[in-house]
Specification:
Layout: E1 2-3, E2 9-11, E3 16-18, E4 29-35, E5 38-43, E6 48-52, E7 57-62, E8 69-77, E9 80-87, E10 90-99, E11 103-110, E12 115-119, E13 124-127, E14 136-145, E15 149-156, E16 161-166, E17 171-177, E18 184-193, E19 197-204, E20 209-214, E21 219-225, E22 232-241, E23 246-253, E24 258-263, E25 268-272, E26 281-290, E27 294-301, E28 306-311, E29 316-321, E30 329-338, E31 343-350, E32 355-359
Antiparallel strand pairs: 1-2, 2-3, 4-5, 5-6, 6-7, 8-9, 10-11, 11-12, 12-13, 14-15, 15-16, 16-17, 18-19, 19-20, 20-21, 22-23, 23-24, 24-25, 26-27, 27-28, 28-29, 30-31, 31-32
Length: 363
């Protein structure tokens, strides 16, 4: 048995040359080994595949590996397989998104500086590399175009915005540069308007909010400015309203107020939502839309409670929420929804170090 320079497996004495099977998703085989009547193959994504009589399968099947591990060498004999594996630490989360309706994708930057992907269904880590001549410096966000094609945005060590996208057959990096030469200070998040047009929001070194958006045929930068006389201290979250067609991006301002950058259907506008009476906003929790039409923004207040600013359909309202477990929350952990997107919920870490999940009544 031998491995050719084209990544094919050659077996003498029985079936001639075996092309790399389609179930390997076009990956190149980098190393092979044999057991009794079975083939072991390592592909360039660090996965181990096996097939043959003693494996009990005719087409290659991926072996289950510990999270974050890659196979770098394999040897076999009789009924035994020995593998050497390497691993990398995970530095921070770039984002997560559900692909195909039921397969969560988690994107992380590894300690090796590369972008890593965990597909929940397949239960393995894939190394997506890094931008050409640049490392990954910070997360911006992740979205799935049409629910099937993931797109992960990051800030590179060159100060540019980069995206890693799946075309349906392969992954590729795209350099989106900087908005009019303005350095990107931090990522805000990513949305897919109408499910098909991605908008990546960032804060620039000029203090303005910028978006990199796709109009259906090309990419453009848009300068959304900032509220007059206000520095945007923190991105609270972003969501879509009006059946997924109108972005709402929430920020905490230096004036202590909650601000919204939103699309009216014909123009972008800033809206000052103030703060709960007698309470200052200490940090953001997240944002979500009920029924894809009514935005909710959650924040932590100086009174030790989580507050939401939400749209009833005709007016904005502040609501204070009970403390999960009776302890004051000290750190936000995110928002979600249940019951067909009609029941918002938020995660917080309390003073005792416990993670709590608080459900609101159905809205």
């Amino acid at each position: 048995m031998a491995l050719t320079s084209t990544g094919n497996v050659v077996v003498w004495g029985r079936d001639g040359e075996w092309p790399v099977p389609a179930s390997m998703n076009g990956r190149t085989v980098t190393q092979i080994a044999a057991r009794a009547a079975s083939v072991l193959a390592v592909t360039d994504d660090g996965k181990l595949h096996h097939w043959g009589v003693t494996s009990g399968v005719e087409s290659p099947q991926p072996a289950e590996l510990p999270p974050g591990y890659r196979v770098i060498s394999v040897a076999g004999g009789g009924d035994h397989t020995v593998v050497a594996m390497s691993t990398t630490t995970l530095d921070f989360t770039v984002g997560n998104v559900v692909v195909g309706g039921d397969n969560p994708y988690l994107f992380q930057r590894g300690g090796d500086g590369n972008l890593w992907l965990m597909r929940e269904k397949e239960q393995y880590w894939e190394n997506l590399g890094r931008p050409t001549d640049a490392g990954i410096d910070a997360a911006v966000g992740v979205v799935a175009i049409g629910g099937t094609r993931p797109l992960a945005f990051v800030r590179g060590t060159d100060g540019n915005l980069w995206s890693k996208s799946w075309s349906g057959t392969s992954w590729s990096w795209t350099n989106h540069g900087r908005p009019n030469g303005v350095a990107i200070e931090s990522g805000v998040g990513v949305l897919a308007v109408g499910g098909a047009r991605p908008y990546a929001y960032v804060l620039g070194s000029d203090g303005n909010v910028w978006s990199r958006w796709w109009n259906g045929t090309s990419w453009s930068w848009a300068n959304h400015g900032r509220p007059a006389g206000v520095t945007l201290s923190e991105a609270v979250g972003l969501t879509l309203s009006v059946n997924g067609s109108a972005p709402f991006v929430f920020f905490r301002g230096s004036d202590g107020n909650l601000w919204i950058l939103w699309w009216s259907g014909s123009a972008w506008a800033w809206s000052n939502q103030g703060h709960p009476a007698g309470v200052s906003i200490t940090s953001g929790v997240g944002a979500i839309a009920v029924d894809d039409t009514r935005p909710y923004a959650f924040v932590l207040g100086s009174d030790g409670h989580v507050w939401s600013r939400w749209w009833s359909g005709s007016a904005w309202t502040w609501t204070r929420h009970a403390r999960g477990g009776g302890h004051a929350p000290v750190k936000a952990a995110g928002v979600t929804s249940t019951k067909s997107h009609r029941q918002p919920a938020f995660y917080c870490v309390d003073q005792a170090g416990w993670l709590s999940l608080t459900y609101l009544g159905r809205c």
